[in-house]
User: Which sequence fits this backbone?
């Protein structure tokens, strides 16, 4: 039986006892050849460094692993005995026992092996035998170093003396799960041998797949033993062929595995669309066999296989060359042979460390083993190894490098750095497509090259080379098909009473029509495979059904899917999978309206009251600021108080039309004016645009402004029966249920809105946009108010992790891209002229929030200009202050400074006087030139001046 995966049954432990007799003639040979054991009273003791140390080995000699392991163990023993640096002259002797692929015989032979005074056992090979022998090892405290028992349930807690020197199937199944997830598959079918090895391995696979949100959809156990018939395999695979999943994990032994492949090829299951993943049982055969028959290789084309990864090294290459000479090329070297070889070296190093710490090989009789007369097993010869715990401790603390790489154990007593090769069966051989390691996942780089880098398990870093899949194709299989077992999908369709344009049942028939149905049929027609289905109406036909109940029916298995105007909302996505949305949706508010006439005061509507107030205030503020800045140096801003007040008012209002006549002289005044004129430009432009819209576009008004208005009021709100709007309004917005009124048709919508709250109607209706658009296409008295306050869409519902949902989403995207989705929409949901009118509800007025930035900039400019100006005034005030003014009283000093400050502000600037003198002198020069050219004019001017002087 291949792989040494014995189909053994766990047998209850039976206690045997027989009399052990040792005569003197056997004493001396045993003293030097068999552990140097000598009975003294209750125990047997030897010297610290005996001449011979005995080990045991349990495996199946004629199995795929056993043939390789036998040679590897023998060569390892030779190498250990030839190496003088280890054991220091003590010879290693290994007694091999053949378990014969039988659980019962394996147990008996293990017990016979235990009769000898051995201190460790290499093996067992089979996981089934390992479960049994581990109980004996626990009792006698003899370490078991298994190089092939990969059952992950062989726990170190239950079996402390069981040491696995090979990687557990827990890591192999982790690798399988990551391969499945890497290619995007969700369901797999597991075919396994029905013993401890197969069941526990597949159980670990199920756990690891669940971590990736994948699952085993169907399990196929194969009876253990070599008597499995081809017809039994045929019956099992026929059932597999009817399943939905096309990803098959094969975790068996070689005999059963090859028969599965041949029957699968006969059934056409090794062709396009199928994925076969075989665990390391197949790689051990491919590595060990010199050449498999061509028909056997032909039946495995495209299979993905896992193999224990052993790093390449000079020692490994040298041993492989030596192996070829030993076997003459008739037997290949598999990874299990390398693990068996390293197991011998591991125990040899541990024994050497055991002796160096002063360990003594001694045995004590087990008080629990009693004498049974007539027994054939010398159970009283099986003694407890006194140094078992110390030797086990040395084994677990080992740190060496073997043919398989580093040999160290982590905290859970597993070998460090688990890794697997991923290979692809092609033609007459295999091709490596990548690696898996527990450190960094899938990669095309050997794991040992990644250990120096930080671990990176991002999806972009998970890579494998291209695979030639069954059917000799490079295209990745979808991983599933619609099951070919004659079963039709039971698809629930809401039996609507209103808005039948979306979905409705043809009266008197079992067929359905509508926008949603046409989209579903068009998407199904784009799938590359046939999908048999039948529509089943959901609802009583008298009112719209509850869509929440419809979605829940999918989770119970009553329906396989749901097709209709089903909104994709959060609480539904938790229990089912939706396709890509095929229609945009969202809740909106619809309310009655009235038309607004322009009227005599329409010119005030572009701005709201606050905007008008702030704008007016800023006009006067800017006028005052400019007056302050210009008053001392600009004659146009001087004069009597009345004149100055009029100047401020006129200057402020004239800036609105950029027609101010007063010139600004100061730098600060010009800066403030430039910024203010920019603000006025923006305000004028916005006002003109808004007023134009008001006077030319029809304006509609409604007391309801949107969902916020409804929340703050206590008026009744309508909603559609069966819609998720009821749940959203009550649960999300906190609106009391007593305010909600269920409405079942567009006619009920219109009547409730027309009646209003005063006559038993509603103030507004909250519903999804597609329904409202269809409603407004015939009802011109109502309009949507406010903004759409939820964003969602309509999709088709399927059970969680349904692969059909993914393919349907792809088909819907294709419909959208090629324009068919829009054509279907126009066919059923064409709007009338009523809904296409350009009237909108109450265009928003211009609010202060749209301009506060401009006013802020202008206000800051005014403040800074005034601040600089007053600093200048204060500086002049300090320089002009009289020294003797300090001697005055405090009150007089303060009032005096205030008077000087105010007089300084009102005082005409010297700079202004100087500029006027310059201007006067320039004008006089011009006049002198004129007088020189005209003496008469000069005389007249002089006469007039003399007259003025005489008057003064």
Assistant:
């Amino acid at each position: 039986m291949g792989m040494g995966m014995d189909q053994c049954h766990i047998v209850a432990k039976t206690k045997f006892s027989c009399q052990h007799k040792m005569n003197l003639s056997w004493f001396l040979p045993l003293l030097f050849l068999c552990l140097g054991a000598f009975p003294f009273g209750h125990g047997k003791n030897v010297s610290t460094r005996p001449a011979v140390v005995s080990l045991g080995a349990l495996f199946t000699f004629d199995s795929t692993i056993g043939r390789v392991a036998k040679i590897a163990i023998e060569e390892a023993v030779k190498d250990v005995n030839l190496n003088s640096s280890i054991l220091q002259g003590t010879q290693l002797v290994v007694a091999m026992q053949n378990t014969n692929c039988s659980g019962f015989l394996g147990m008996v032979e293990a017990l016979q092996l235990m009769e000898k005074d051995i201190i460790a056992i290499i093996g067992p090979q089979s996981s089934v035998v390992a479960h049994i022998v581990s109980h004996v090892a626990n009792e006698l405290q003899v370490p078991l170093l298994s190089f092939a028992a990969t059952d992950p349930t062989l726990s170190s807690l239950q079996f402390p003396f069981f040491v696995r020197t090979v990687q557990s199937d827990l890591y192999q199944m982790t690798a399988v799960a990551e391969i499945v997830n890497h290619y995007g598959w969700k369901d797999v079918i597991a075919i396994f041998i029905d013993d401890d090895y197969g069941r526990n391995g597949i159980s670990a696979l199920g756990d690891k797949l669940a971590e990736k949100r994948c699952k085993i959809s169907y399990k196929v156990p194969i009876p253990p033993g070599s008597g499995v018939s081809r017809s039994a395999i045929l019956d099992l695979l026929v059932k597999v062929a009817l399943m939905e999943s096309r990803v098959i994990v094969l975790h068996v032994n070689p005999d059963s595995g090859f028969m599965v492949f041949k029957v699968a090829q006969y059934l056409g299951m090794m062709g396009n669309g199928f994925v076969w993943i075989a665990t390391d049982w197949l790689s051990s055969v491919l590595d060990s066999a010199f050449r498999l028959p061509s028909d056997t290789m032909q039946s495995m084309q495209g299979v993905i296989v896992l193999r224990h990864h052993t790093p390449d090294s000079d020692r490994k290459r040298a041993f492989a060359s030596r192996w070829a000479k030993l076997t003459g090329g008739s037997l290949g070297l598999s990874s299990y042979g390398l693990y068996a070889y390293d197991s011998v070296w591991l125990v040899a190093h541990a024994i050497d460390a055991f002796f160096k710490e002063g360990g003594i090989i001694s045995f004590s009789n087990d008080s629990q083993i009693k004498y049974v007369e007539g027994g054939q097993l010398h159970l009283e010869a099986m003694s407890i190894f006194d140094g078992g715990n110390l030797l086990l401790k040395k084994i677990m603390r080992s740190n060496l490098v073997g043919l398989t790489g580093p040999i160290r154990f982590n905290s859970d007593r597993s070998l460090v750095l688990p890794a697997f090769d991923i290979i692809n069966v092609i033609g007459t051989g295999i091709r490596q497509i990548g690696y898996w390691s527990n450190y960094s996942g899938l990669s095309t780089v050997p794991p040992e090259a990644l250990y120096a880098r930080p671990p990176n398990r991002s999806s972009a870093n998970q890579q494998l080379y291209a695979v030639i899949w069954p059917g000799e194709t490079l295209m990745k299989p979808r991983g599933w098909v619609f099951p070919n077992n004659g079963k039709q999908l039971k698809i629930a369709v809401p039996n609507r009473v209103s808005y039948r344009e979306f979905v409705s049942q043809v009266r008197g028939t079992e067929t359905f029509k509508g926008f949603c149905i046409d989209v579903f049929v068009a998407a199904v027609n784009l799938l590359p495979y046939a999908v048999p289905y039948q529509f089943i109406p959901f609802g009583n036909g008298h009112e719209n059904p509850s869509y929440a109940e419809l979605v829940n029916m999918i989770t119970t298995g009553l329906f396989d899917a749901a097709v209709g105007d089903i909104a994709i909302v959060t609480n539904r996505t938790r229990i089912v999978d939706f396709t890509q949305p095929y229609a945009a949706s969202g809740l909106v508010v619809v309310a009655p309206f009235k038309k607004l006439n322009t009227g005599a005061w329409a010119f005030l509507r572009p701005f709201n009251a606050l905007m008008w107030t702030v704008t007016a205030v800023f006009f006067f503020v800017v006028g005052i600021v400019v007056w302050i800045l210009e008053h001392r140096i600009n004659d146009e801003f001087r004069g009597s108080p009345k004149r100055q007040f009029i100047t401020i008012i006129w200057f402020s209002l004239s800036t609105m039309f950029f027609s101010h006549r007063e010139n600004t002289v100061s730098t600060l005044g010009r800066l403030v004016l430039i910024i203010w004129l920019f603000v006025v430009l923006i305000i004028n432009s916005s006002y003109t645009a808004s007023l134009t819209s008001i006077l030319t576009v029809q304006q509609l008004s409604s007391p309801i402004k949107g969902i916020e208005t409804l929340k703050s009021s206590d008026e009744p709100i309508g909603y559609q029966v069966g819609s998720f709007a009821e749940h959203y309004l009550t649960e999300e917005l906190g609106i009391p249920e007593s305010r909600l009124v269920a409405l079942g048709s567009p006619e009920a919508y219109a009547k409730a809105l027309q009646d209003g709250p005063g006559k038993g109607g509603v103030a507004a209706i909250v519903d999804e946009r597609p329904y409202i658009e269809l409603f407004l296409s015939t009802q011109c008295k109502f309009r949507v108010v406010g903004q759409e306050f939820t964003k969602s869409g309509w999709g088709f519902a399927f059970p969680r992790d349904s692969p059909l949902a993914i393919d349907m989403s792809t088909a819907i995207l294709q419909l959208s891209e090629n324009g068919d989705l829009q054509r279907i929409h126009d066919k059923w949901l064409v709007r009338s002229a009523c809904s296409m009118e350009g009237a909108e509800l109450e265009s928003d007025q211009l609010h202060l929030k749209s301009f506060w930035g401009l006013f802020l900039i202008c206000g800051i400019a005014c403040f800074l200009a005034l601040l600089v100006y007053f600093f200048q005034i204060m500086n002049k005030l300090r320089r002009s202050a009289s020294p003797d003014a300090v001697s005055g009283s405090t009150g007089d000093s303060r009032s005096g400074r205030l008077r000087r400050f105010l007089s300084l502000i009102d005082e005409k600037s010297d700079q202004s006087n100087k500029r006027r003198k310059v201007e006067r002198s320039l004008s006089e020069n011009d006049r002198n030139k004129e007088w020189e050219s005209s003496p008469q004019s000069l005389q007249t001017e002089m006469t007039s001046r003399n007259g003025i002087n005489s008057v003064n």
Summary: The chain has five domains: 52-167+314-407, 169-312+418-461, 489-578, 590-595+701-791, 602-696. Residues 667-696 form the longest helix (30 residues).
